[in-house]
Fold each of these.
Amino acid sequence: MFLSMELPGGDKGVSLMANDLADDERFDPTCGYATASSERNRVDCAVQGVNRAIGKPPQKAFFGLFNQFRWPGTTGWEYWSDNYQLMLKHALLVAAELTVPLHVKMNVIDAVLAAAAASGITFEYDFASSVQTLNNPDFAYVNRQIEQGEYVVLTNVVMRQL
């Protein structure tokens, strides 16, 4: 699984993308079902669970958080928000829940760095490494972007109580 925060382009806002999902070849977006033990289900549950957990009950943190990207090997959630501090916190907590690193595409890195500084979140980052063993052959496209330096990986993340 490759988890990233990025701006996909077009009319889409900043999104949290999970690509190269394992055992997702037979996913059918028209029925929307994923097995309970699948990486897709784990990601989708983590995104929604963290959204509820960091909200102020009975509200979620993001009213507008939509599963806009659903195809075999990918699930992605678009934030309908411009609150980068909250988006970064959410993305980092989802990554922690899934025990995977968070990658950031260069098209949002400046906003992420500013949000981190304003939130008291610290981290180091380095250029991401391409995925060597693919779960989904379509991820080769993202791998090419990784190899061109379009993604960084966040490491040594420290979040103060926000």
Amino acid sequence: MRKMLLAVVVIVLLSMIFAGYAHAGIWEKAKSWLTGEVLALVASTLLAILGSSFGLVFIKISRTFREAGEFMTILGMAVEDRRITRDELANIIKEGRDIFKVWG
């Protein structure tokens, strides 16, 4: 995620820098195709990719919270009588592992 965000930022910055050179007359060929519309298309594509990656992270975070809620429910029921049996401990461990399976 961090690498992709860095790549997106670098691409957008390079596009902004080279667009100025293209319109200054340094690159004549690039001047013909590197316009504001092309840069807007590139920026919107990159923002769509970035938005979808944030959406995937949001889904994982929401699943993590759901699993953590289930873990807390099992833990609360097990501790309610101030005694944890083997079956309750097995359920607690299973639910604890489920939290980390979301990211694994």
Amino acid sequence: MGIRIIDSDETYRLITDGDGRYAVVEARCGHVYSLDCHHAHQAPDGEEGMREVVGEHGWNDYPAARDCFRKAVTGERYYKEHLW
């Protein structure tokens, strides 16, 4: 199955590969970025780019990925409100 965006907020996307695996990526300026510090990577925005930046080991179950997504979005809003 292909990569599908389940949710997006700020610059973050919660994605699935359709096989029960989920991940969070960041999308900016036509590129996608991994949030995994062990797999720091960027690729052109699109289905293959999202698959590439997640890699084979960046996938999680739904609850873990949803929690990561929530924390990323909440942190982004916090810094926007307090730094600017």
Amino acid sequence: MQYVKNDEFLSDCVEMINLLDPSNVITMMFNAGKFNELYNYCKSLLEKDPDDMMALQNISLSLIHLKKYDEAIVFCDKVLEIKNSDTYALKNKIYALESLKQHERVLDLCDQILESNPKDVWVLNSKGLSLNELDRHKDALEYYDTTLIIDPDDVTALMNKAISLSHLGNFKDSIEYYDRAQTVNSDLKEIPLAKSKLFEKLGMQDDSFLAAQGILNKDMAKIKDDAKENKCSVFHQFCENEFKNSETE
């Protein structure tokens, strides 16, 4: 399974001020997904003022959405020349470097932000993700754990910790973190299959079947107990439960 990343910060980079301000034009272009137009608009602003921070920020943002990551980094660096601690520029650069698979450089930028804000969840997850990509799964766990202390329901950290634990061969704990992520967001369709495969590796075939159906760990025991009481297979018991549920709807 691929690692996951919450990139809501990208939309936060666009500022909303008043209807006559250029930021409003930028906001409308961004919300409409008109990234080529956004790039051209910011370029025109920079022709008037090469140090226009809003234009520099948003031209890099447009280039990220256009998947022109090397160019985006150039504009991030221009922002950082003016303000070397600018969080938006650092995060945009992190995102671009992640996309270019330059994970060692990502680690340095994450450390720069964490020095001033050690509780930045997005950056903690970013550092964990880059450590995973560098096959440093055990080190990555530290950053997911820190995130989960701050926000126990952070799905990015829960999912990536589950994947990390799976890489380390800790299938039982991996299942628990997948289950926690599923409890927070049941729409994550990749979780049931991931849990099912891990139960199968543990030789737990009934649990593997139930996991594949999207059943949470806490609900599996009752289904298995009912199957035992009714002297039928877990598959039969599950189908019976589904039939009864459909009748009551």
